[in-house]
Amino acid sequence: MKKSLIPPNFQVLITPFGLISAMAILGAVVYNVGVARISQQNLQMAQTKKNESVLAERVSVLQEVSGTVTTQAKVADAAVPNINPGLLTLSQLRLLASKTSVTVVDFGIGSEIRDVGGLTRVETTIVVEGSFANVVSFVSQINTVAPIAVPGKIRITSAGALSRASVTASSYFAPLPTKLPSLTEPITKLTSAEADVISKISLLTQPAFLELTAQPAAPRSNPF
Amino acid sequence: MADINLLPTEITPKGFMVRLAQILRNVATVGLAFFLISGVGIGAFFILTSVEIRSSTTRQDQLKTTVKSLESTEQSLILLKDRVGKVKQVLGADTVSPSVQKAGAIITSFPPDVSPKEIQIGDITKITVTVSDTSELVKFMSALMAANKFKRVDLKGFSFSPTSGYLVSIEMVDK
Q1: B16 & B82 share domain
Q2: ipTM score for this prediction
Q3: Is residue A154 helix, strand or coil?
Q4: Which fold has domain A78-174?
Q5: Which B residues in the span 19-38 are in contact with A, Cβ-Cβ below 8 Å?
Q6: B134 lies in some domain
Q7: N or C end of chain B, less CB within 10 A?
Q8: Which pLDDT tens digit goes with each residue over A76-117?
Q9: DSSP class of residue B75?
C-alpha cells in the first residue's frame, strides 16, 4: 500500500476545511455584491414610490382646483399684469371718476420704475373736481380697481362748493413665470393666506375689455 | 458484534481529529443551508421589488398622462401662485390706503359748519378746516378725539379771521 504524503490526521480535515473556505469566499463575494445591489434596489424603490406619491399629489391638487383656478388666475393677472398697466389704470380711474360723479381735469402717466421682487412700478397722476363728498368718495375707492392702484400722495383742496383732488397712484407689473416645475417636484395647493388674497382681489373692479370681431372686406364702389 | 478495523494504526486518523472533521462538516452543512436560504430570500426580494418598481412605473406613466391632460390647469395654478405672491408684495407696499380709509371716516362726518380747506393724505394726514364758531370747533375736535383712529393728533395751526372764522390745521399720525 502506497503511503500518502499528507498525514491521515490532516487528510480527514481537508474536505470540511475546503468546503468551509469555499463557502466563506462565496459568502464574502455574495455579501459584497448583494448588499450593494439590495441598497441600490431599495433606493430605486424609495425613489419610485416618492415620484409616484408626488405625481398622485399633483393630480389630486390639479383636479381639486381645476374648476376655479382659471378664473382666479385671470383675476390675479388683472391685479398685477405682465405688461405696463399705466393706461389701464388711467382708464379704470376715469371710469371711477365717472361713477363717483367727479370730473377729470388732468392726468398723466410716469415712466417705469424698477421696484423690489421683480416688480416694475408706474405712477399715474389724476386730478379730479367735484363736490367734496364725491371727491372723497373717489379718493377712498382708488384701491378698489384692478390693476391694483396703490395711492401715494393725495391732496384735496376746497374752495366754496368745488373740491379738487390730486392723486398719484402706483400700479405694478411683472413678467409671467416661464416654466412649470418638473414632474418630480411637489406642487402644493393654495394656502389659506393665498386664498384670502384671492378673495380680496376678486372684489376689485375688473377692467372691461371689448373684443372686436374681424369684419369681411366691403366691396369698393366704382369711382368712375 | 464488535467493530473490526483492519487498517494499520499509522494511516488511521486519531479519534479527536475524526470528531473535529465531523463538527467542521456539520458547520459546513449548516452554512450551506443558511447560504441557500439567504440566496432564496434575496432572490425573492429582488423579484418582488422589481415587480413593485415596474407596477409603480406603470402607475407613474398613467399619472403623467393625467398631469399632461391637466397642463392648462397647472399653468393657471403656477400663474396664480406667482401673481398672488406679487399681489402680496404690492399690498404690503400700500401704506396710504389705511390712512385714506381712516381720514375718509373723519372727513365725511364733518359737522355742517366745518368746511374743509385742504386735506393731504399720506404717511402723515394733514387737515386744514375753517370753522364758523367755537361750539362747532369743540364738536369737531371732540369727534376727532372720539374716533380714536390716529396715534397722535397735533394741532399745528390755529388762527381767526372775522370773515371766514377759525382756521384750524391738524396733523395726524397713523396708528
Answers
A1: yes
A2: 0.80
A3: strand
A4: Alpha-Beta Plaits (3.30.70)
A5: 20-21, 24-25, 27-28, 31-32, 35
A6: yes
A7: N
A8: 999 999 999 999 999 999 999 999 999 999 999 999 998 888
A9: H
